[in-house]
């Protein structure tokens, strides 16, 4: 069998979680919370099931949920997406992103990704027959370099993927960076896939600069989010795509044949739960407290802390702690120290090693404290 993805193995998140389980390590690798979601949300799913919402929903998503998502975006970003023609409910952001790519990328089209990037983007583009064009984020700071992005644009560039807040670096794009992207794309027909799954985890009073806030970006963008991140339910796999009607129509042509619909009771529950903004409005305070606890614990170690402006990740430079490369260090840390982390090299096509690893702090305080106790021995 000739592989469609000859360079792809099992994702690093699956590999590291399995290793963490095998060695009973504290799993700060794969990004997911180890605490319960709001019991009201669980009750809402039960109620939806008891109310008989157990058959296929509309292909595009339960209307009440599309309306609630539209209202939420309008409230936050003053951009109104039509629930019927511009919002689609997906099986998490993962399915949203691959569906958008399959919908717009023709064989031979170039798609720009900014490295390091989430590990599904490149295989998604390859499956669509697209040509991956990798542009590095600025080494050290992970900020977008518009000179390099501009230089990567050709007549074949079909789309660019961005991600803010950023996994793995925890940087958050500023307004001026979004404006620079808008200016760069203005004279082109390049489409934008804006992965905003960590939209509600932005710290220190900074806003989340969604692509939907910028008319020149919104007009060409698939804006992707995930309830898994926002409501601490990564296993529910429900996300959203907001895009102009013409793009949404193409998106839905693929969506109807790669997933068709997303589970019904959870959509009803999310629609009801979105009525109260407090759970997502409170997320920056909730997660920045965890970030601060984790950073304070690491301050006395030889790990060098990188900034964490958003997301639920904290990157650290390991060069004072170990001579191992990132991947070997993460293996060693999991097996010998009992804490799992993710090497940043997993987010680069060429395995670039800069001696930086990523910890996830979406954990109970006691979990973070146990991990810190172990890390402080290094
Ligand atoms: N994009 C990024 C940047 C992510 O970190 C994740 C979650 N790991 C996803 C997409 C996928 O989200 P979901 O779990 O909703 O499919
Ligand atoms: N997005 C999560 C992370 O970056 C993991 C999701 C996955 O396991 N695919 O850790």
From TrEMBL:
**Cofactor(s) the protein needs:** pyridoxal 5'-phosphate
CDD domains per UniProt: AAT_like (cd00609)
Q: What keyword terms does UniProt attach to this protein?
A: Aminotransferase, Pyridoxal phosphate, Transferase
Q: Which residues form the Aminotransferase class I/classII large domain?
A: 25-375
| Stretches assigned to coiled coil | none
Q: Which GO terms describe its molecular function?
A: transaminase activity
Q: Which organism is it from?
A: Rhodoferax mekongensis
Q: Which InterPro entries match?
A: Aminotransferase_I/II_large, Kynurenine-oxoglutarate_AT, PyrdxlP-dep_Trfase, PyrdxlP-dep_Trfase_major, PyrdxlP-dep_Trfase_small
The superkingdom of the source organism is: Bacteria
Please state what the protein is called. Answer: Pyridoxal phosphate-dependent aminotransferase
């Amino acid at each position: 069998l000739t592989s469609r993805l000859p360079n792809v193995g099992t994702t690093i998140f699956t590999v590291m979680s399995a290793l963490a389980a095998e060695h009973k390590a504290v799993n700060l690798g794969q990004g997911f919370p180890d605490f319960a979601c709001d019991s009201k949300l669980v009750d809402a799913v039960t109620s939806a099931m008891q109310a008989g919402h157990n058959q296929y929903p509309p292909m595009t998503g339960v209307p009440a949920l599309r309306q609630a998502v539209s209202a939420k975006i309008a409230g936050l970003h003053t951009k109104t997406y039509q629930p019927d023609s511009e919002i689609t409910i997906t099986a998490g952001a993962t399915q949203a992103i691959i569906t958008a790519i399959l919908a717009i990328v023709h064989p031979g089209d170039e798609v720009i990704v900014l490295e390091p990037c989430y590990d599904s983007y490149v295989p998604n583009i390859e499956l669509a027959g697209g040509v991956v064009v990798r542009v590095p984020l600025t080494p050290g700071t992970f900020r977008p370099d518009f000179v390099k992005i501009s230089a990567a644009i050709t007549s074949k560039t079909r789309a660019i993927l961005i991600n803010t807040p950023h996994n793995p670096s925890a940087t958050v794009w500023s307004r001026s960076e979004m404006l620079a992207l808008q200016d760069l794309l203005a004279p082109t027909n390049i489409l934008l896939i804006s992965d905003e799954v960590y939209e509600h985890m932005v710290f220190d009073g900074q806003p989340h600069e969604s692509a939907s806030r910028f008319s020149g970006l919104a007009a060409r963008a698939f804006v992707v989010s995930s309830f898994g991140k926002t409501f601490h339910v990564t296993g529910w796999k429900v996300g959203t795509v907001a895009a102009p009607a013409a793009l949404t129509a193409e998106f839905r042509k693929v969506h109807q044949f790669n997933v068709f619909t997303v589970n019904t009771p959870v959509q009803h529950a999310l629609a009801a739960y979105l009525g109260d903004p407090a759970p997502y409005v409170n997320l920056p305070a909730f997660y920045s407290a965890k970030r601060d606890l984790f950073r304070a614990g690491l301050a006395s170690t030889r790990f060098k802390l990188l900034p964490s402006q958003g997301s639920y990740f904290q990157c650290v430079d390991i060069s004072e702690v170990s001579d191992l490369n990132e991947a070997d260090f993460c293996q060693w840390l999991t097996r010998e120290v009992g804490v799992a982390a993710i090497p940043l090299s997993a987010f680069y096509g060429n395995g670039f090693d800069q001696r930086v690893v990523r910890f996830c702090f979406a954990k109970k305080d006691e979990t973070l404290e146990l991990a810190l106790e172990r890390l402080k021995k290094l």
